Amino acid sequence: VIATMRDLRKRDALEAAAGAALGRTLRIERLDVCSDASVAECMATVPGGHVDVLGDNAGVGRVGPLESIPVQEMQRLFDTNVFGAARVIQAVLPGMKRRRRGHIVVISSVMGLQGIVFNDVYAASKFAVEGLCESLAVQLLQFNV
After folding, report:
1. Which controlled-vocabulary keywords does the entry list (predicted)?
2. Angle ∠(66,72,75) on CA atoms, nearest 5
3. Is 56 in contact with 88 (CB distance < 8 Å)?
4. pLDDT per residue over 69-95, tens digit each?
5. CA angle, corner 83, sides to 80 and 85, nearest 5?
6. Residue 110 pLDDT > 90, yes or no?
7. Per-residue DSSP letters for 58-102?
8. 0.70 exceeded by the pTM?
9. What is the pLDDT of residues 8-42, one digit of tens each?
10. Active site residues
11. How much is the pLDDT for 87?
12. Structural domains of the chain, ranges and CATH numbers in brackets
């Protein structure tokens, strides 16, 4: 198992929870889903690039009415929540399709199904994630992914 996080300085709690598995069946790597280079660097640490299960729970939130959120903040949120998921899926998908097996689990939010007041931008990003994953699920059936 490879657990990833953007900032390895925050890994103490994860290492403590890992216990004896750390270094034996679990290792921790740096991965910033907002960076193509970081995704590629992390994938290079995977033996043979062979990923059986991808669990993607990277995400950021933003509360506030649409008119109060600068476009640059919206782009940052979408870069993490939507394009980040797309980046890591793109990285593992060719191998999964070639092997004709694999699992991709993307953690979204109830706000990907129903918007909530003052969560306009966050809900929009989660709706996008839901659409991405629903479309992929249909396409990937033929590959047993």
Report:
1. Oxidoreductase
2. 85
3. yes
4. 999 999 999 999 999 999 999 999 999
5. 80
6. no
7. ------S-GGGS-HHHHHHHHIIIIIHHHHHHHHHHHHHHHHT--
8. yes
9. 999 999 999 999 999 999 999 999 999 999 999 99
10. 122
11. 98
12. 51-143 (3.40.50.720)
Selection from 69, 51, 74, 65 nearest residue 115 by Cα: 65
- The beta-carbon contacts of 44-52 under 8 Å, at least 24 apart in sequence, are 45/2, 46/2, 49/95, 50/95, 50/99, 51/92, 51/95, 51/96, 51/102, 52/101, 52/102, 52/103
Tokens 């657990």 locate to 3
- Residue 16 amino acid letter: A
User: Are 105 and 54 within 8 A, CB to CB?
Assistant: yes
DSSP string, 53-70: EEEE-------S-GGGS-
Share of the chain above pLDDT 90, in %: 94
If you search the block for the tokens 């216990």, which residue do you land on? 19
CA distance 115 to 117: 7
- As a whole number of Å, the end-to-end CA separation of the chain is 19
Q: What per-residue confidence (pLDDT) applies to 113?
A: 87
8 A C-beta contact, residue 39 and residue 87: yes
